[in-house]
Every structure is written in C-alpha cells, then in structure tokens.
Design brief:
CATH topology of the largest domain: Tetrahydropterin Synthase, Chain A
Largest sheet: 4 strands, antiparallel
Number of domains: 2
Distance between the termini: 119 Å
Number of helices: 6
Amino acid sequence: MAKDKDDAAEGEAPKGGNKKMLIVIAATALVVMIAAGVVFKMMMAPQEAPKDPAKEMGAVVPLTDDMTLNLSDGKYLKMKLALQLSEEATTKAGGEKALKAFDGSKARDAAISVLGHYTMQQLLKPENKEKAQEDLTKEVKERYEGQVLKVYFTDFVMQ
C-alpha cells in the first residue's frame, strides 16, 4: 500500500491540483476579457467635440441708457437692450467685471436702423416683435463680427 501511494505521488499530480489550476486560468481569462471590454468601450464611445468659445454663451451686457427712436408711422419706441456675448468675447474683454466699459454704440445704431422700419401696429403683434428681435440680432452679430450672439429687449414701450 505504501508503494501505491509513492507511485501516485511520482507519476501523477494530485486530483485537487487540476481543479485549482483550471479555476485560476478561468478567473484570469475572465479578468482579461472584462479589461478588454472596458478598453474597447472607452475607445468606441463617442467623443465630445471640443466646445467653440465663439459659439458658447458668455456674459450678458446690459446697455444702461434708455433709447428712444422714431417708428416709421411717427410713433415712438422707448427701449433698453442687453447683448449676449460669446464666451470668447467675454474672455477677450477680461471677464464679466471688465464688461462695464463695453461699447454698445454699434448695437444702438443697428436698433435705430432695423426697428425704425416698423410701425407701432406691427410691433404690437408678438410674432412681428420676435421677427424684429431676430433681425436686430442678425445685424448686431454682423457689426460685432460674431462676438454678440443674441440681443434682448429689457424694456420695450411704444407711444
């Protein structure tokens, strides 16, 4: 009997050793597959495009002075404007605190040119007022070479 035990020890591995080896190999393979899946998912995930500071919303600059202009029918429009700058324009101006010295004269001139073509009756209709705002925004955007993204009416009174 002792001889059988010695023969088994010399020629064969113990039965429990094979099972342990298979478990270690299977666990290692599983870890490698999970890691490969994570890496693949990260590589295949859609990458966010870098944001363009010229198109990102920056600071809003209120033009502090009231503006009164003649409408085409002889009525008057008293208003105030605020300009939504791009992030790029905000940064170039030195941040939001430096914007107090922002020159709004081009926007004010554009307002006179664009809104002066409307009558009071036209601007009383919400859709016409929105169209006027869009037209003014387009004109201001051109005059400020794309640094202004939107024009807001902060006061709008007609008489």
